[in-house]
Amino acid sequence: MKIQKTAPAYPQGSLLVEPEWLAAHSADKNLRIVDMRSEKAYAAGHIPGAVRIEDKPLRNPEERLTYLPRPEVFTELMNRAGIGNQTDVVIYDDEGGKLAARLWYLLHAFGHSRSTLLNGGWQKWTAQSRPISTEATVVPSARYQVKAIPDMTCALPQLLTRKPGVIVLDVRSPDEYSAKVISPGAKQEGRIPGAVNVEWKENVTGPNLEFKPAGELLAMYAAKGITPSQEIIVHCAAGGRAAQSLFTLRLLGFKKIRVYYGSFADYSALPNVPIEKPNVLIDK
């Protein structure tokens, strides 16, 4: 079953589905709906047929090169969720895609391109008074096999040896970027020298946190000197917000973009890397 484009016109609009499409296809045998919200939120009500996947196992702090979960751990997570290699996956959350995009990124990093996000997530689904369930969804176990796709992830050595002209996109808040506050998990405030800041929240709008129209997003990034022809490394503090911006740029047709999944929590803990602060450059 091929997921059809139902979202507003984006260059890669098939990455995003609307509640109307999901409501019409939720019973499809080859479709798995994944809820990335908290256990409490899921128990209080979820989209019928949705399984819940915990966010924490999706980042492995012991893997200091890529921070990706071990392949066997990710395989088991997918097996338990009933996701096989031919399963179409629709993911949602209630945080503007921040949690959903983390799973989307990892599915793609492990070779599973049959995944999309629900535009507007839980908020838009409920705003349209669509059915909800409080019963936990039980699904048969699947057989998932990972296939690593290296060009989705930027390891630290690749970041440090990047070529001139490669854009480092920092999607943290302006206060984190300008060193007014320390990012969650970081050892100090600051930013990677030369990084450009476009906060991930700028990708979505309205009470349902829907993705902004393609033209508005493209103009926003172009104003910061970011265009589809460029090579981009995106990061935040711990990878989740970066995954949402990765998704957004892929939605817009950007192809040469990778996530530094260790992000600033990893970078700020290193002993011999430069840290930039307003009017100060600390070269360790």
Describe the structure.
Helix content is 27%, strand content 15%. With 284 residues, the protein is an alpha/beta fold. The strands form four sheets. A five-stranded parallel beta sheet has the order 1-5-4-2-3. A four-stranded parallel beta sheet has the order 7-6-10-11, covered by helices on one side. Strand 10, helix 9 and strand 11 (257-259) form a beta-alpha-beta unit. Helix 4 (98-109) packs across helix 9. It starts with 15 loop residues before the first strand and ends with a strand.
| Percent range for β-strand residues | 15-25%
Shape: globular
Number of helical elements = 10
Structural class: alpha/beta
What's the CATH class of the largest domain, please?
A: Alpha Beta
Q: How far is the first residue's CA from the last residue's CA?
A: 53 Å
Please, what is the CATH homologous superfamily of the largest domain?
Answer: Rhodanese-like domain
Sequence stretches where pLDDT stays below 50 over 5 or more residues: none
Q: What is the CATH topology descriptor of the largest domain?
A: Oxidized Rhodanese, domain 1
Helical coverage, percent range = 25-40%
Instruction: Give the SSE string.
Output: EHEHEHEHEHHEHEEEHEHEHEE
**In the CATH hierarchy, what is the architecture of the largest domain at level 2?**
3-Layer(aba) Sandwich
State mean pLDDT (0 to 100 scale): 95
| Widest beta sheet: strand line-up | 1-5-4-2-3
**Main sheet overview:** 5 strands, parallel
User: How many domain regions?
Assistant: 2
Please compute the radius of gyration using only Cα atoms: 19 Å
EC number: 2.8.1.1
Catalytic activity: thiosulfate + hydrogen cyanide = thiocyanate + sulfite + 2 H(+)
Keywords: Pyruvate, Repeat, Transferase
GO molecular function: thiosulfate-cyanide sulfurtransferase activity
